[in-house]
Amino acid sequence: MATLEERQKGQSCLDELAAIVNRCLIRRTSALLSKYLPVKIEQVVCIRLTDIQQKMYSKFIASDAIRRTVQGERSGKVSLSALSAITTLKKLCSHPDLVFEKMEAGDDGFEGALSLLPEKYNTRKVIMPELSGKLAVLDCLLAVVKATTQDKVVLVSNYTQTLDLFERLSKHRGYQYVRLDGSMTIKKRAKVVEKFNDPLSSDFIFMLSSKAGGCGLNLIGANRLVMFDPDWNPANDDQAMARVWRDGQCKQCYIYRFLQEQ
């Protein structure tokens, strides 16, 4: 542990270095821009699981696979890792469609889960927002924004599977949309962003993968942003939420953070 004299010397050296660096480095934080930007309203929306999600969730965490994972037992059958189990639960909280393949295959924790779904359920046909608390709220939010305002919306998720879900919902409701994920080239990305930011563009929704475009992207054409699922690193969420509230924005901004509650 450093002595008081050593800490004082270290602070003195740090101050000297900062004085030298500040002569040639300009550092601007979002706090500076906040004086000139419109008001930003951030809302945390706590959403309950639907009955179907709750039953699947309870069935999964009570399964033998989870018990083996928690207890660290070793057996002939490969058990889930804790991280994989948490990721699966995050997807289930978004919509049962995202774990449908696991249900079909009867994977660990999803044995017999298909029986909990509605009769004639098919993920390849019409999407059912009512099966998910989050998607039902998003569906309602988009409908209200579309019917009562001229605003555009950015939908952010950590998973491309969830972006697929947004696409299906948008097609079902007839919303114009664009999508940006890791598969899009830099050149095409710039064109898509420029078109979306055009006030005359008919695009209503911008679907964004937080890993592909959560930093450095200017989406001031929209003034509403939905964080559909939280990232492991809160800093990534903060970066993604700053896509609409940034230099050039003229409208009041609304940020909706969807969180699941039991």
UniProtKB/TrEMBL annotation:
SUPFAM superfamilies referenced in this protein's UniProt entry, alphabetically: P-loop containing nucleoside triphosphate hydrolases (SSF52540)
GO molecular function per UniProt: ATP binding; DNA translocase activity; helicase activity; hydrolase activity
Keywords from the UniProt entry: ATP-binding, Cell cycle, Cell division, Helicase, Hydrolase, Meiosis, Mitosis, Nucleotide-binding
GO cellular component, as recorded: nucleus
Xref: InterPro entries: Helicase_C-like (IPR001650), P-loop_NTPase (IPR027417), SNF2/RAD54-like_C (IPR049730), SNF2_N (IPR000330), SNF2_RAD54_helicase_repair (IPR050496)
GO biological process: cell division; double-strand break repair via synthesis-dependent strand annealing; reciprocal meiotic recombination
One Pfam family of this chain: SNF2-rel_dom
Domain Helicase C-terminal: 137-262
Role noted for this protein: Involved in mitotic DNA repair and meiotic recombination. Functions in the recombinational DNA repair pathway. Essential for interhomolog gene conversion (GC), but may have a less important role in intersister GC than spn-A/Rad51. In the presence of DNA, spn-A/Rad51 enhances the ATPase activity of okr/Rad54.
Subunit description: Interacts (via N-terminus) with spn-A/Rad51.
Protein name: DNA repair and recombination protein RAD54-like
